[in-house]
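Email to the structure team, subject: 60S ribosomal export protein NMD3 model.

Hi all, the expression group asked for a predicted structure before they design truncation constructs. Nothing fancy, just the tokens so they can compare against earlier work. One-line instruction: predict 60S ribosomal export protein NMD3, return tokens.
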Amino acid sequence: LTFKPDHDHDQLPGSSISRRPRHRHHYGGTTSSVSSYPALFAYRLLPVADTSLKVELSTMVEDQDAGMFNVKQTIGTVLCCRCGIKMHPNAANMCVSCLRSEVDITEGLQKHVVISHCPNCDRYLQPPKNWLKAQWESKELLTFCVKRLKNLNKVTLINAAFVWTEPHSKRIKVRLTIQKEGLEKAYVVEYVQQDHLCESCSRVAANPDQWVASVQLRQHVSHRRTFFYLEQLILKHDAASKAIKIKQMHQGIDFFFGNRSHAVKFMEFLRSVVPTKSRDDKQLVSHDVKSSNYNYKYTFSVQISPVCREDLICLPRRLSSSLGNIGPLVVCTKVTNSIALLDPFTLRHCHLDSDQYWRHGFKSLMTSRQLVEYIVLNIEITSPPMEAKIGGARYLLADAEVARLSDFGLNDNIFWVRTHLGHLLNTGDHALGYDLCAANSNDSELEKYKSSLEVPEVVLIKKSYEEAWQRKRGKPRKYKLKHLEMEVEDRARVDEEKERSDYEQFQRDIEDEENPELRFNLSLYRKEYQEESEAGSMADDAAAAPLEELLADLVLLDER
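Reply from the structure team: attached below.
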């Protein structure tokens, strides 16, 4: 109870406590008086001037800020009208157990719901036309199930959780806990899955070749290493998830989509990872005169730049002049949505975007298939030392004395070259480079420089680890790569030996310690199941991909 100061009464002389009139109060139907609790409200008056004395209150607490006295309040109880137990009073005069037995707060709420599920793409229909991708017992599926319930806004949702069912039972059970008017109850809602093909899947089921848009990806080079790299990027970013069908073609891949917007989005992804140019066309399939509806088939032709990493390039005179007279002989060090070029004789470098490249459209003077192995007889760092760091890679200019490995011991042909690999090469190492002295080149751009350019005899590209690879040949790698599910149009035209050689070279590029950026852009998965003998050999001298960079391939096992 709280007693407020009564300003109508005078305070007691020599005290800080005023007189209070007696008040009567009601507690749960009973009447009590302040005077009936003498021990509770008894106090003793003490002079204020005596600072050594205090007002002693046995069970009362004084609020200094408000100047009020707070007294503990006793809440009364009544008997339940049904079971007769003591309870706090409420409007129904019934305890919580009796209220639960008499009142059903789940009345009017849905307990059985039918949902449409596409078995081909594993999506659920969100009326009227949207299809939602959700995994089994995921947060997205739980949100979808709760939103399908009607009249749920009349109660307060406390909790929602899945109840385990067999995945093949076509049933989803969700336990909901709701609250209404102070009552709380949990009940189970059962969702029945009805298989219903979505529009795109039904079109494919009726006719697998009935696509709406296709993307024809091509690169006119003699190897498929670019497509191996591009395949891993597509898998990492899940860029081809909307593709109906993927077909491997000669010098390229075809992607088929059920919607034009899916093909356009896929082309935007390609532009962000490789330098491309494209053109599109459409063909009329049908036309409804009454509703003026037209059905087209769209075809997008995408061409990837033929310039690849480690290619030797002779820049056109106009382009070389616009880039500050770099080159004209340059090496391609990296290809993304732009092309990184390096002058191996001066360490000058530049980047060409897609528009700049296709404006000039130059080709490679020599490709990686024309690399020749050399042995380093002597190497000296230039004075003063010239060093450059380009995109995380380090280069150091040096003068080297090299000889062809095939001529070593047969003749005395020795070449003196300037190279950008001074930080890697030592005397006795092997290096791969282009033999311009014996090459038969008919490049028109190089012919224009014949009078003003002294063409070097050898251009070194990278250090060779062929001896190490020969020791590891036949031993398993400790990682694996995933692949797209694609059809092969004409297996008779596929050179399996050449494709296997290209894939082996692509894996060596991944494992190259000098190029960690390439591994960073890909997803390498650790092999889980290996025999003990294989594991021992892998621990000794397996491929050089660091173990901490490998991903654990996710495998969901039902342990219930």
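The longest strand covers residues 183-195. The radius of gyration is 41 Å. Ping us if the truncation boundaries need rechecking.
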